[in-house]
Structures are given as C-alpha cells and as structure tokens.
Specification:
2 domains; Quinone Oxidoreductase, Chain A, domain 1; 323 residues; alpha/beta
C-alpha cells in the first residue's frame, strides 16, 4: 500500500565518493501489513553507509543503484498497517532498519513494528536516531557473541566512536571491567563513559597486555592473531570486520582449543532496542553526539563521516521535528 507521494530522499545512482549522493524526489515507501509509515525526524550516520555508497560491500547488497541509505531513524508514526498493535499514529519511535536495505535518509520510512521502540522523551531526534544500530551492535557483540558476564575483563578497541562509546557503557552496565583504547584527546571521554582504564593506542602497544575475557575489536585494526595471546583460554574475540580469516576460524573453531572468534553482523531487534531505549531515556547511558547535518548537506555529512573527526556519532536532520 502506497501512502505518500512524492518524498525527498538522499540517494545515489552509482557507487563512488560522497559526490555521488543527491537529494531527489523518489517513490514513496510501500507499507506492509505489519509495518508503520514513519515521518523521519533524523537518521543516524554510520561507517557502513559510506561502505555501501562506495561499493565496498556491494557483494552482499540485495540491490544496486539507484538506491538510498540509512539503517537507523527516529520519527513519528503517521499510519499503521492492519497487523500493527503496539503503536498508533502520533507515537514517536526509533528503529533500526536492515543494514544493507535500509533507506532512512528520507522524509518517510516503512518500519516493521517489531523493529521499533518508543523514542524516549528525554532524547533529541538526533540522539534517538543515533541509538539503534550502534547500541544494538554493541549489545549483540558483547552479550550474544562475546558471552559477557559480570567481572569479566573487557577490552573495547576503538572506544570513542559510535559503537565504541555504546560498548564501553553497556559493558560497564553489564558488570564488565572495561579497558578502552582511543586517541589521546578522547581518553577522558572513555573514562567518563565507564572504562576503568583508557589507553592511548598510539602511545602503548595494547597487544602486550593479557588476561582479557573478551576483546571487542570495534576499530577493525586488531586481528585475531594479535588478540589471541591477550585472551584467557576461555576468552572470546568479537569483530565487526569480516575477512576470509574470520570466516574460516568461525567455521573450524569447534575443533580448535583456546579462545573463540565471532563476527557480529547486527540485526534489528525490537525488544532489545526497547531495553536500550530505557537505558538511554533514564540517563543510565548517553549518546555522544558529534555533529548534525541537514538532509541537503548529505555530501558534506559523508565527507565528515569518512574523516572520522570527532567522537561518537553524527546524524542527518530530516524534518522540522529534528531541528
């Protein structure tokens, strides 16, 4: 069922640099029976968006250009499908869309009911839009893939970015004893977020440390071969960077002794997102917001995204509600 015509969205017609992005009128989203039409207030910006736009993960995409981007949003429900029961028009929600299919850089998005959670009143649109993908990635990596338990020693390698800042907070809230790596200018932030220790990765070779129960390589620069001696025999290594070595190890590791390896590809999870929304809404966790950009400035936003200048995350402001 089509409900809105037309809408503005940021799209690209060929893989390439940020300059391939353009804001244009595009067909409105189709609404399935179990989905909601959401007027998007803000959309989170994530490194995977730049990877998709650049064609660096085109082998796993379900579609080719022209297409949009954006796997996390915050907005207001406009209409609901006949099978939707938890939300109604006027409700404010945040949601993670499928990573490789999401088109959240748009005025409207079709959101399956089970991929959404209430948008906490204490969060701005930009803050709410920056929670779903980053926090779900951190939670799934730490708990489901890494088996984090209270008192575990946890290394978050790359602790000042979007996923890293979420991971430090969640690991500490779940009882972990957290060490986070970051550049010197972000060490105070990492400690403020709950790390017992923050390490300047430029000044210290972190691989000389050991005794960790869990190493979460957020930065994608600490391969398992280097991390394995850092782990206890029952420890776990988790990465969000896929490689042939990761795939081979995860397939064969049941027959191999020692620490385990896991690749975390985040998946939408409405109940988990609702739990996270409570944490962020009550102030138990916070969004580290770097910058916001208007939809019309999406090219500039992607240049900033690829430069990775500041800590935390940035967002696109789509509607007046997001400003």
């Amino acid at each position: 069922m089509r409900l809105v015509t037309p809408m503005r969205a940021a799209r690209f017609h060929e893989f390439g640099p940020p300059s391939v992005l353009r804001v244009e009128e595009t067909p409105d989203p189709e609404l399935e029976d179990d989905a909601m039409l959401v007027r998007v207030a803000a959309a989170g910006l994530n490194p995977i968006d730049a990877e998709i736009r650049g064609g660096r993960v085109s082998g796993v995409l379900t579609g080719t250009p022209p297409r949009g981007l954006g796997a996390e949003i915050a907005g207001t429900v406009e209409k609901v499908g006949p099978l939707v029961s938890r939300f109604r028009p006027g409700d404010r929600v945040m949601a993670m869309l499928p990573t490789f299919k999401g088109e959240g850089y748009a005025e409207w998005a079709a959101v399956p009911e089970d991929e959404a959670a209430p948008w906490p009143a204490s969060l701005s649109a930009a803050e709410a839009a920056c929670v779903p993908l980053a926090a779900l990635t951190a939670l799934q990596a730490l708990r489901a893939k890494g088996g984090l338990r209270a008192r575990h020693r946890v290394l978050i390698h790359g602790a000042s970015g979007g996923v890293g800042t979420a991971a430090v907070q969640l690991a500490a809230l779940l009882g972990g004893r957290v060490v986070g790596t970051a550049s010197a200018e972000h060490l105070d932030l990492v400690r403020e977020l709950g790390a017992e220790e923050a390490v300047d990765y430029r000044a210290e070779d972190i691989t000389r440390r050991d005794g960790f129960d869990l190493v979460f390589d957020v930065a994608g620069t600490l391969p398992f071969g280097l991390a394995r001696p850092m782990l206890r025999p029952t420890g776990a290594y988790v990465t969000t960077t896929v490689s042939p070595g990761v795939v081979t190890r995860t397939v064969l590791q049941k027959a191999m002794p020692g620490p385990t390896m896991a690749y975390c590809q985040v998946q939408p999870d409405g109940p988990a997102l609702e739990w996270l929304a409570t944490l962020y809404g009550t102030g138990a966790a916070r969004v580290v917001l770097d910058r916001t950009f208007a939809l019309a400035d999406v090219m500039e936003a992607h240049r900033h995204l690829e430069g990775r200048h500041g800590p935390g995350k940035s967002a696109l402001l789509i509607s007046d509600e997001g400003e």
